[in-house]
Write a structure and sequence with these properties.
Elements (H helix, E strand, L loop, with lengths): L1 E6 L4 H15 L12 H4 L4 E8 L2 E10 L4 E8 L8 H15 L4 E7 L3 H9 L3 E2 L17 E7 L2
Parallel strand pairs: 4-5
Antiparallel strand pairs: 1-2, 2-3, 3-4, 5-7, 6-7
Length: about 160
Amino acid sequence: MLHLTLVTAATDAIRTLIGELDAELSAHYPPEQRHGLSLDAIFQPHIRFYLAARNGAPVGCAGVALFADYAEVKRMYVRPAARGQGVAQALLAQLATTAQQAELARLMLETGTAQHAAIRLYAQAGFSECPAFGTYTGMPAQALATSVFMQKRLG
């Protein structure tokens, strides 16, 4: 059984999952093209971060940053052995619910061009490509060369 837990501070499980995510992204993108939040930045008041566990074992994580007019998916990761088992869908559904509870009508995200499975997942979940948004609009073009921006209307 999959269990999602709201996490309010870094735990060993979260550190390990974020480390695995960073290692995976480092294999595909140079540092200036990786826009994930640092571990400390994840646990800010405007961010809700969830740990997914199956039978007590951590299998994934994801957060949602709540802004004035949209919410943004942050640091979404599912361990390779748990992919294809509904973990990512459950996390996305939780993030959407959290955004709706905050009365936000759009869920946005930035991912990378090499994240083919993630892009398919997001499209299947109702996301479509969109222009850069938020702080990304002020970044140099080279920093966004491998970025894919997507959004989903909620409600």
